[in-house]
Design goal:
Length: 695
């Protein structure tokens, strides 16, 4: 088993907007703690945490990664999360299993949009938080302005524990307000040297310390009484009050530094150990009994029945599937068995590892609070629970966010379709925000995800991991055709070519149904005009003819066809003849019924800050959309509307452009509507050209 106990574990998710330096902080923690002998850098592809080729190519985190450091007799488990909205699911999954969040803010940009989103997610899980203002040496770095953005955009008063000495190119260290010492750093090793506060900053440090002391005192009634009496708190009282305030979520400490120069990292790790909760502090984990549906709890106790939650799956064509999990109760070791209530299966642990990026460190066993990985599980995936079969519990999954953009996936090589489906299946196991389907109407494989970058990276992974190359195209819109008029028409089929002939004769009444009415076949035959055994064949012929309309070859919907008369030949009539007659009659009749084109309309919810309201509504109107209503959501507004699907197939990048990356949207199918004539002409012409090209 582990050489540490649950009380000594700290599980942190490093979160924030893309480009704030989250991965750089993780790399610096590994280096300063002596885990690595050189500081990994994102920009030159030497990062321990960003190890996937797609990350190294783009210089961004696209997948959460795990590592750990031992610091001051504590184990700090680090979950480095992506800052791009395309990969927000990984971030949410890490917050689900973390005990605290380290929120990283750029000293120039302050709180940016994705930081607001991850803050809301951390609220959902009631996570204690530290805030690290990074990149204090950048041009225009502004500590007070960054603090103000926390108050304005997060609605929280951050409590500085460190303040910078200098800024921009004059930044040279930090003042520790708890110790009232100036800290300088050996950047080559990240080691700290404490000294006296520069005289010119003494008054400012005193002002910040008084505000810090007051904030800490407010978290504890006894401390507040002491502070009001004496106007000061001891170092021990400050430390105790700080931890209580952070763990309870009443206090959000703010620190600062420069991760790529190892400035502020050692004190940050000291603070993580001193102020953030252990798994014991977080208390019982809640779930349900899979057999009874009643609430169950598990205490973070080694003697409790084993339970763990799977928060990530990595598929590798050589190493097999790697399953990452967080232990909530009990212990486990290699070769132990567990029950998966989601799949109703029992599996056996293979080798258990602790991860350092892609490096696997063998673990003798795991205890409550541990974050670990196991290889080659066959039936256990992201969102599943591992539990003791005799005392089962099932933890709540992180619900995948709805996909917002789709592409049609086509193989570059003939015959690769099966490989594509297998590869996509493996990718979806790894990333639940990806989904794919085969469109029955267009016959395309549709891959959907959180954004264009998300889809492109999925395709790159499929090529690298599974050797399948594909091209991405805009999906075809599943138009439909219908009729606006009514007619009576004869469908007659007669063929005589030596021997037995073919004869079928039908009279059809064709009329429109209300939108969404589908198809209705009415048998009005009386007096044996058509034998009963041939009538199903007529309906079958009509149904097959409906698959390809007369305008542009799209399926025909919302029609009623009544078979009211006909004739037959005692020898030459057959089911085939009546099927053809029904088909011919329907096609001829539809042409007489003022056929028209229908397009899918979707319900859309667009979440944006107030300042972009006019631009977004104007853009929605230009896409033939209509606004139905608006409602507030936190600091944002949600525009509710309807818009043709054809107009939003590439909406995601456009919305991001309009809103400086701060807008998000979801949509669901609503109904079909008639296409305006000018647009219908273009759609029909394009469909006919495509048909001609195919020959």
């Amino acid at each position: 088993m582990a050489k540490y106990d649950s009380k000594s574990i700290r599980n942190i998710a490093i979160v924030g907007h893309g480009g704030t330096g989250k991965t750089s902080i993780a790399e610096s923690m590994l280096f300063v703690a002596g885990k690595t002998d050189r500081l990994g850098r994102v920009d030159d592809g030497t990062s321990t945490m960003d190890w996937e080729p797609e990350e190294q190519k783009r210089r961004i985190s696209i997948s959460a990664s795990a590592a750990f450091v031992d610091w001051d007799k504590h184990r700090i488990n680090i979950l480095d999360t992506p800052g791009d909205a395309n990969f927000a699911m990984d971030t949410r999954s890490c917050l689900r299993v973390a005990d605290a969040a380290l929120v990283v803010i750029d000293a120039v940009g302050g709180v940016e949009f994705q930081t607001e989103k991850v803050w809301e997610a951390a609220d959902e899980y009631a996570l204690p938080r530290l805030i690290f203002i990074n990149k204090m040496d950048r041009e225009r770095a502004d500590f007070p302005k960054a603090l103000e953005s926390i108050r304005q955009k997060l609605g929280k008063k951050g409590t500085p524990l460190f303040i910078p000495i200098g800024a921009e190119d004059k930044f040279r260290g930090i003042i520790d307000l708890m110790q009232m010492k100036a800290l300088s750093f050996d950047e080559a090793k990240g080691k700290v040297k404490a000294g006296e506060i520069p005289a010119e900053l003494a008054d400012e440090a005193k002002k910040y310390r008084e505000a810090m002391t007051e904030d800490i005192a407010e978290c504890d009634e006894a401390l507040m009484d002491k502070y009001l009496e004496s106007g000061e708190l001891s170092a021990e009282e400050l430390k105790t009050g700080l931890r209580k305030g952070v763990v309870s979520g009443a206090l959000f400490p703010v620190v600062c530094g420069v991760a790529v120069r190892n400035i502020g990292i050692a004190p940050l790790m000291d603070l993580i150990v001193a102020a953030l909760p252990s798994p014991l502090d977080r208390g019982d984990a809640k779930g349900i009994n899979p057999a009874t549906g009643t609430e169950e709890k598990r205490s973070p106790d080694e003697k409790a029945p084993f339970s763990a939650f799977v928060f990530k799956t990595i598929s590798d064509p050589f190493a097999g599937r790697l399953t990452l999990f967080r232990v909530y109760s009990g212990t486990a070791s290699s070769d132990a068995t567990f029950y998966n209530p989601s799949r109703k299966t029992t599996e056996r642990f293979g080798n258990i590892f602790h991860l350092d990026g892609k490096t696997q460190r063998p673990a003798e066993g795991v205890i409550p609070g541990d974050i670990a990985a196991v290889s080659k599980l066959k039936e256990t995936f992201t969102g599943d629970t591992m539990t003791d079969e005799k005392s089962p519990i099932q933890y709540e999954k992180v619900q995948p966010m709805p996909a917002i953009i789709s592409f049609a996936v086509q193989p570059k090589s003939k015959g690769d379709e099966e490989k594509i489906m297998s590869g996509l299946n493996r990718l979806v196991e790894e990333d639940p925000t990806l989904n794919y389907r085969r469109d029955d109407q267009t016959r395309e494989i549709i891959l959907s995800g959180m954004g264009q970058v998300h889809i492109e990276i999925a395709v790159e992974k499929m090529k690298r991991k599974f050797g399948v190359e594909v091209t991405l195209t805009t999906p075809k819109v599943p138009y439909k055709e219908t009729i606006k008029g009514k007619t009576t028409v004869q469908g007659r089929y007669k063929k005589q070519s030596g021997g037995r002939g073919q004869f079928g004769d039908t009279w059809l009444e064709i009329e429109p149904l209300p939108r969404g009415g589908g198809f209705e076949f009415v048998d009005k035959i009386v007096g044996g005009a058509i034998p009963r055994n041939f009538i199903p064949a007529v309906e079958k012929g009509i149904v097959e003819a409906m698959l390809e309309g007369v305008l542009a070859g799209y399926p025909v919907v919302d029609v009623r066809v009544s078979l009211f008369d006909g004739s037959f030949h005692t020898v030459d009539s057959s089911e085939m003849a009546f099927k053809i007659a029904g088909s011919m009659g329907f096609k001829k009749g539809v042409e007489q019924c003022n056929p028209t084109l229908l397009e899918p309309i979707v319900n859309i919810d667009i979440e944006i800050p107030d300042e972009y309201m006019g631009d977004v509504i104007g853009d929605l109107n230009s896409r033939r959309g209509r606004v139905i209503g608006m409602e507030p959501k936190g600091h944002n507004q949600v525009i509710k509307g309807q818009v043709p699907l054809a107009e939003i197939l590439r909406y995601a990048p456009d919305l991001r452009s309009i809103t400086s990356g701060r807008g998000t949207f979801t949509y669901t199918h609503s109904h079909y509507e008639e296409v305006p004539p000018m647009i219908a002409e273009k759609v029909i012409a394009a469909a006919r050209r495509e048909k001609e090209e195919k020959g």
